[in-house]
Design goal:
This is GFA family protein. Keywords: Lyase, Metal-binding, Zinc. With 164 residues, the chain is mainly β. The protein has a single domain, classed as glutathione-dependent formaldehyde- activating enzyme (gfa) (Alpha-Beta Complex), CATH 3.90.1590. The chain is 11% helix and 32% strand. It is built from 2 helices and 11 strands; from the N terminus they run E-E-E-H-E-E-E-E-E-E-E-E-H. Strands 6-7-8-9-4-3-10-11 form an 8-stranded mixed β-sheet. The chain starts with 18 loop residues before the first strand and ends with a helix. The structure holds zinc ion (2 copies).
Length: 164
């Protein structure tokens, strides 16, 4: 009998890099090549509209950790109230949104559902609970913000803690 030996790794919040993903039809494929910074869901009305669902889910990574492996996503643009531009990238064939980037930011938000393996993705935070559908609010060990947080530091820390 072997003792004190771990045969299976406990289920971890991280996965070996690179992490592959892509659009619905397969024309756009990408690889995440750098460690994830954090994950969150957003219950704001815009995200509800955009997704046609209750919330959106983001996996935040360093911008140079996103490698387009196949296809040429279309770039759509919207302007925030403050004037900053947000670019969303969609498959030209099936229009799945794969990732978004705010102008000038060194991070990219990958749409969590476009990852090939979503089994490990858990949000460490939720935004805009003030406009959430009541049943969709996550209770328990998660950072909650009534609106948009101004400081992402707690999210980075929470992800690091949970990824240990
Ligand atoms: Zn597609
Ligand atoms: Zn939102």
């Amino acid at each position: 009998m072997t003792t004190g030996r771990t045969i299976c790794h406990p289920r971890s919040m991280t996965r070996d890099l690179p992490l592959p993903g892509g659009c619905n039809c397969g024309e756009v494929r990408y690889l995440i090549t750098q460690p994830i910074l954090t994950t969150y869901i957003c219950h704001c009305h815009l995200c509800q509209k955009r997704t046609g669902s209750a919330f959106s889910m983001s996996v935040v990574i360093p911008a140079d950790g996103f490698d387009l492996a196949r296809g040429k996503p279309l770039r759509t643009e919207r302007r925030l109230a403050g004037g900053a531009r947000i670019f969303a990238h969609v498959c030209p064939a099936c229009h799945s949104r794969t990732h978004t980037q705010r102008e000038g930011r060194k991070t990219v938000n990958v749409r969590a559902g476009t990852l090939d393996d979503t089994s490990w993705v858990r949000p460490v935070a939720q935004f805009w609970t003030s406009s959430a559908q009541p049943w969709a609010v996550v209770h328990g060990d998660i950072l909650s913000y009534a609106e948009q947080p101004t400081d992402f530091t707690p999210l980075l820390i929470a992800w690091r803690e949970q990824s240990k």
